Amino acid sequence: MKTDTIAAIATAMSDSGIGIIRISGPEAVEVADRIFQIGTGHHRLREYETHTIHYGFLADGEEILDEVMISLMLAPRSYTKEDTVEINCHGGVLLLQKALNLVLKNGARLAEPGEFTRRAFLNGRIDLSRAEAVMDLIHSRNEFALKASIRQLKGSLAEAVRKIRSEILYEIAFIESALDDPEHISTEGYPEKLSLTVDGLLDRLRRLLESAEGGRLLKEGIRTVIVGKPNAGKSSLLNLLVGEERAIVTDVEGTTRDALEESIRIGGISLNVVDTAGIRDAQDVVEKIGVQKARKYAQDAELILYVVDSSRALDESDAEIMELIRDKKVIVLLNKTDLEPALSEESLREQFGKWGEEIPVIRTSARENIGLEAFAEQIRKMFFHGKIGMDDEVMITSLRHREAVQEAYDSLCMVKRSLEDEMPEDFYSIDLMNAYASLGRILGEEVGEDLVNEIFSKFCMGK
To answer: Annotated binding site for K(+): which residue ranges?
Structure first.
């Protein structure tokens, strides 16, 4: 761990009312002292109580650079558990850069991305799961992802993992003690007791794993692809979802030649939507490439929005689309319901009934803004069991965490198998230790420097 003094601009680099420069490390207060003046003279910040704020001027020798407020937070009561000073300047980009250069000239080093949070982790103020929650909080794309990040930042996942690890460690300690001192510690009846304990642990890990897919979708959004024949209303639907004229809409078939991607929120759910070219037997070279892209996007989608023009009968292009999406999660949007119908909802359901399952069909009209509420409700049913709410549930939103929990789950399954095969106690201990170590990676207790570097390299500068 580096123990020098670091500094960075902690606010966005844009013209704003206030910009903050954060300094942390053993010389943070002294660096600030060299450039901070109170009133007409210089005053040492070390003479003040921690967690106080002071008015004065930022100065480069005799030259006054800005009128500022300085926040003083002495170790260990700071974000990094080091001495920390935050300079609140006026928020001009040029001014902030000059102020930062002044700080660097007087003894600080430019911080690496995520280095403040990394020091908070290495100094033991937060575990690795809470450090990752900081980044998730910054990048939250909807209300539910934000709440999940806040819960993890408060330690909900860490607390659940620590409780499970504590119970596993107790069993490991008992087995090791019994093996070392069999005369005084009996293992009679222990396999039955351990089996019940492992069952309970597996159930809790299973619930964590079940939360992982929903947590990922809330955090990252659902990969959604709009498909349909040309002029079915796909681009009009995208414009309706986005809330602006994002895609060109005309009466000419084949207007959309390339994929158009947008991130939207509907009913609190994030969708990463791709509007594709209308699928048909295209003759135009450019349109043919667009149709090929549409098929590729549909194959990789987590949700297909199949837009059907209710004013036109189904044809061979619809049959091709239905075959393309039959193994996907599909919502059929029966569009243009404000026009004279040529296709009924019942006949459309009958076509999909050949798949042996009921496909949701929602009547929509992009022109009349009809069907969005029913659409949002259907997504909740398909992906979130009809509701989205944090309640008191611990939710996994990270692939890294899910993999660690899965490995712990698999190790405990091995313990169960050893118990069923009446293997010696030391076999239980090996797999229990593997489960304990796997869960430790979530907290950062069983991780290498390379992984730590990778995680914090994704942070923004100044955090």
So the answer is: 231, 250, 252, 255
